[in-house]
């Protein structure tokens, strides 16, 4: 029992002593010195254990590292720092529970790293097509380039930048400068061969005219040629060169950049050249059933636009009654038929390419077709109400195809025209005709310009019954007188 008490007392005492030692700043004393690529922490008064070192410069986040201090190794080097830069520093003992005590800071005596010298930076290789340099210094802030700097993912000591297109096939000099360092900056020069060219950086200009030419900006110091291959969407097996491209068709074009046997592909452009068609349409001929149009086609973007066989035109004429469309007519004129006579139409020409509408129709002013021949009279009724009177009426259900609606009626006796009439309604009466005579009756529709087919019929007048009756009356009256005279005459002769 006494031994247990002695043992517990010794452990308690040793714990108290250790706690007092860990809280004694004299066990966290250290010195700082500049070394190549960074600074060194030398522990001068310490107990064995893990220590946390934190260093901070004015412009960046703090750097924190952990090291084991022992009798065999009481110093710790921190590298990959910025040259000619002052760093604040602090050291702390890390306990088993993760707490930190015995912090000793020397902020009042910040340490300045050394400057760079020849050989501190060397050429690296990390990202294809990039110029890379490596150093045990932190050179991310020293690269004096106009392009974005990238850190190598597999090697934190390397930093790379993508050369500009104009840098290809030249020697590029990179300056490593620091505001805090005096003296001349480090300069490294590297040849940038054609292999460094990123074809996607070559942006061909989309052509806007036909025949198509594709332009691009190539590295001026390389002897390069470019050949473009274009494909119509949906037709990968039909490659074309730019001069062969057609309008109103979507293409994808990629250029092959050649330097000797080495090749790179440009970025791909997708485009369609839509010709700015301008149609001048005029009416060249009008009949009663057709309107003929002619037009000229101009385009600022597409020279000789009519040379493309897929370019066609539709002609159409529309009225309030009907419409007529002529598909795939000539390339400069068309004749739209099947129209109504003496009807006002609005006509237009619509261009298409490969059966697809490509432009708004171009219209001409309202145009009226000429008068046509009136349609035939439907029926005609002829009567002879009196012996020397002829009456006629007719019905017309068709179109007069002209400005007026008139009926003409004529009566002939042989080759002689006896009487003629013109009326809006088809009702005529011919009086005081000759008795017992055959007349030729003719009735025709007339629209003010053209006369339609005539209805013809021979009509007979009757005998003059009134004259016959008068003659008979006279005859009956004179017959008794004649008989008396005969009797008297015979009596005289018998004497």
From TrEMBL:
<keyword id="KW-1133">Transmembrane helix</keyword>
<feature type="transmembrane region" description="Helical">
    <location>
        <begin position="467"/>
        <end position="489"/>
    </location>
</feature>
<dbReference type="InterPro" id="IPR036116">
    <property type="entry name" value="FN3_sf"/>
</dbReference>
<keyword id="KW-0675">Receptor</keyword>
<feature type="signal peptide">
    <location>
        <begin position="1"/>
        <end position="18"/>
    </location>
</feature>
<keyword id="KW-0472">Membrane</keyword>
<keyword id="KW-0732">Signal</keyword>
<dbReference type="InterPro" id="IPR013783">
    <property type="entry name" value="Ig-like_fold"/>
</dbReference>
<dbReference type="Pfam" id="PF00041">
    <property type="entry name" value="fn3"/>
</dbReference>
<dbReference type="InterPro" id="IPR003961">
    <property type="entry name" value="FN3_dom"/>
</dbReference>
<feature type="domain" description="Fibronectin type-III">
    <location>
        <begin position="277"/>
        <end position="372"/>
    </location>
</feature>
<protein>
    <submittedName>
        <fullName>Receptor-type tyrosine-protein phosphatase C-like</fullName>
    </submittedName>
</protein>
<keyword id="KW-0812">Transmembrane</keyword>
């Amino acid at each position: 029992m006494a031994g247990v008490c002695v043992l517990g007392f010794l452990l308690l005492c040793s714990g108290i002593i250790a706690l007092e030692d860990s809280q004694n700043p004299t066990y966290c004393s250290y010195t700082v010195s500049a070394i190549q690529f960074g600074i060194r922490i030398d522990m001068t008064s310490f107990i064995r254990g893990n220590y946390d070192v934190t260093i901070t410069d004015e412009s960046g986040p703090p750097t924190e590292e952990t090291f084991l201090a022992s009798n065999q190794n009481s110093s710790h080097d921190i590298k990959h720092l910025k040259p000619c830069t002052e760093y604040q520093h602090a050291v702390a003992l890390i306990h088993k529970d993760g707490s930190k005590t015995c912090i000793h800071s020397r902020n009042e005596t910040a340490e300045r790293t050394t400057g760079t010298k020849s050989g501190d930076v060397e050429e690296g290789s990390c990202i294809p097509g990039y110029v890379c340099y490596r150093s045990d210094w932190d050179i991310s802030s020293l690269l004096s380039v106009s392009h974005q700097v990238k850190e190598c993912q597999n090697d934190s000591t390397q930093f790379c930048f993508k050369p500009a297109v104009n840098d290809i096939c030249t020697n590029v000099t990179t300056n490593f400068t620091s505001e805090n360092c005096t003296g001349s900056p480090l300069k490294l020069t590297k040849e940038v061969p054609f292999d460094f060219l990123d074809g996607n950086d070559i942006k061909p200009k989309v052509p806007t005219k036909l025949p198509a030419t594709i332009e691009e900006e190539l590295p001026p110091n390389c002897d390069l040629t470019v050949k473009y291959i274009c494909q119509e969407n949906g037709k990968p097996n039909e490659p074309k060169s730019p001069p062969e491209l057609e309008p109103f068709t979507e293409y994808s074009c990629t250029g092959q950049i050649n330097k000797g046997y080495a090749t790179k592909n440009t970025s791909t452009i997708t485009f369609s050249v839509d010709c700015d068609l301008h149609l001048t349409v005029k009416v060249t001929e009008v009949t009663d059933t057709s309107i003929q149009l002619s037009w000229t086609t101009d385009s600022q973007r597409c020279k000789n636009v009519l040379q493309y066989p897929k370019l066609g035109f539709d002609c159409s004429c529309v009225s309030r009654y009907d419409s007529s469309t002529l598909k795939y007519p000539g390339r400069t004129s068309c004749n739209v038929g099947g129209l109504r006579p003496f009807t006002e139409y609005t006509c237009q020409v619509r261009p298409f390419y490969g059966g697809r509408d490509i432009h708004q129709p171009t219209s001409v002013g309202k145009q009226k077709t000429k008068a046509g021949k009136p349609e035939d009279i439907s029926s005609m009724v002829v009567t002879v109400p009196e012996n020397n009177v002829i009456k006629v009426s007719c019905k017309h259900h068709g179109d007069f195809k002209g400005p007026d609606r008139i009926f003409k009626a004529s009566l002939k006796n042989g080759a002689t025209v006896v009487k003629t009439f013109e009326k809006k309604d088809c009702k005529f009466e011919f009086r005081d005709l000759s008795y017992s005579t055959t007349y030729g009756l003719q009735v025709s529709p007339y629209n003010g310009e053209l006369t339609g087919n005539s209805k013809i019929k021979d009509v007979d007048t009757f005998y003059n019954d009134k004259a016959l009756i008068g003659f008979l009356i006279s005859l009956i009256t004179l017959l008794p007188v004649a008989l008396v005279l005969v009797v008297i005459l015979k009596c005289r002769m018998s004497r």
